[in-house]
Amino acid sequence: MIEDAPVAGRPLSPLDPVALLSSHPILQTDPRGLIIWVNDAFEALTGFTSAEAMGKTPGSLLQCPDTNPQTIRAIREALAARVPIRTPILNRSKAGRFYWLDLEIQPVFDGEGVIQGFQAIEVDVTDLMETLSRDRAALDLAARREATVANVAQLAGVGSWEVELETNRVIWTDQARHLLDLDPGMALTLADSIALFTPEARPIVEAAVALGVASGEPYKFEQPLITPRGRAIWIRVVGRLVTGAAEPSRLVGAIQDVTGLRAEREALQAALAAAEAATIAKSEFLANMSHEIRTPLTGVLGFAGLLEKLPDLPETARSYAGRIATSGQALLSVVNDILDFSKLEADRVTLDPHPFDPWALVAETVALVAAEAGRKGLTLTTEFEGEPPAAVLADSARVRQVLLNLLSNAIKFTKAGQITIKLGYCPEAGGELRVAVADSGIGIPADQVDRLFQRFSQVDGSNTRVYGGTGLGLAISKSLAELMGGRIGAESSWGKGSTFWFTLAAPRAELARPEPAAAEAQVLVAADARILVVDDVAMNRELVRTMLAPFAYDITEAANGADAVRAALSVPFDLILMDLQMPGMDGLAATRAIRATSDLNQQTPIVALSANVLPIHIAECRDAGMDDHIAKPISPADLLTKIAHWTLPEEVDTPQSEAR
Ligand code: ADP
Fold first, then answer.
1. Ligand 1 test: best mutation among 453, 474, 478, most atoms within 8 Å of CB?
2. Which of 161, 197, 419, 448 could form a disulfide with 225, with the two C-beta atoms 3.0–4.6 Å apart?
3. Closest CA to 345 of 278, 262, 269
4. Nearest atom of ligand 1 to the alpha carbon of 497
5. What tens digit of pLDDT does each residue of 216-241 get?
6. Residue 595, Cβ neighbours under 10 Å: how many?
7. Ligand 1 site: residues with CB under 6 angstroms?
């Protein structure tokens, strides 16, 4: 476009056909710079007629605020110095359109060298300038993007690389070189790069790369290497084979220094392991503590019970024995609560769903607290809303536990009036059982209701509080209700009474066999059964012996595992009651030894007698070859039921004595 311009250098006469017909605007001025002539192309481009342009300076006509001031200054200086000038310039037409010119101004002299004026030839280069500026913008954007990517890569500690498979040469980005301490001139082949990895890592890296090349699938690994400057770092590599028809195959990928990340990860894992170890230690501590408390409680409760039953006991002594038994029971229930709570916290409670009659379960549970309610003069009523299903599938022991807790609280916090137990069933969504316990007791301030379901939370937590308790009951109940697929809640008004309720998922079910009667089991006793009682604590052996005294059992005692094994080698027993924790040979080892060595007692039922009551302990007992488990503190009924179950022929076995 510029080439076809009427190249300046000679002044054109206004009548010159080149000037007249040129498609490029041309103008002439007098020595002062005032326009004296313009051609048609000037009129067409600028929109000013020749008449309008006459006598004006081109600048006053065409310059605009956006015209570069340096350009204007350069033109003025050239005019003053009477020298030619060529410059791009932004002008504005009469209609306000902006356009770019390639402007060339020549001074015009007469034969004597006297200035006659100036001639300007203008070439419209707007299209060119726009294209250029678009390209520039695109270039700028690309450069900016590249810079951003580089910045981000630097921030993330990521560099990229490429391997030409033909030459095996690796091309690194600056960031990649920086990460690996590679000097700019250092050229590495793929093999050289793999050699940077530690000897142990190298085969792994080689295998990953080979697989990536063979399969075409992306590959990645994280391995340690030593940089040429001797820094030991961990590098994460991702790569992939790129094959194109036009270009040779290559591997492309990125590397990242993950040394810091790994250190953080390891610290986190160590913290996690420490936390897990602390949880295990806590659980073990709780289990041990519970064992240590249960063991002496066995004596307290057992002998208090026996004492109460002595026929010739003075009344005061009998009432003291009763108090010892009640306090022991209270202590036992606190230990049970703590143990339960820690098991729930560690997600170690598993449900044991089976079909049961919900109505019978509620009646049976209410019967357990009826005496206590009676002592306080409270009326207990039970209502069923709607039609009760004959049986539902759920864990009845856990339902009983939650209900018993709500009932005990209701009795504890009610001085007078009544307690109503409502049972409801909603068959929708698979079946839901709803149990509510309403009392006319002291109530709970509205803002405290939700808090009570948190552990150790009580309305009155002061030292002077009237009501005892650990504040764990409702937290346990909440966890159990949620474990059973339900919820728990309470409505209460301060001074007027409370209603605590819970729900659980309980699909309708068929009763597999008649539930045992709620009444106390009638324990049948086998005469003459030979029982070996193994316990290192003499008091415990004495307790069992005394509990069994009214019955005609033939009892042998052993004070440790080794004695038990010896006894089992010479006497065929009908039942062995085996303590677990004993110095020397413990109960598990003794059981294994009896099963392995005693022909006489290989099949004899062995029942663990222990304060270790966690499921894991019971599983250990079974693994060692034991048949059953009796928890300490031993209840006489439990002991007799288990003895009957394991010593009586099956047809006279009692319904309650089924092995658990
Ligand atoms: P604990 O009874 O051992 O303190 P719980 O978790 O069973 O623990 O109960 C927490 C607290 O909730 C109780 O101390 C008492 O302040 C309040 N609470 C529970 N049930 C009732 C109720 N029926 N009436 C009034 N307050 C209750």
1. 474
2. 197
3. 278
4. 24
5. 899 999 999 999 999 999 999 999 99
6. 17
7. 405, 409-410, 413, 439, 441-442, 444, 452, 457-459, 469-475, 498, 500
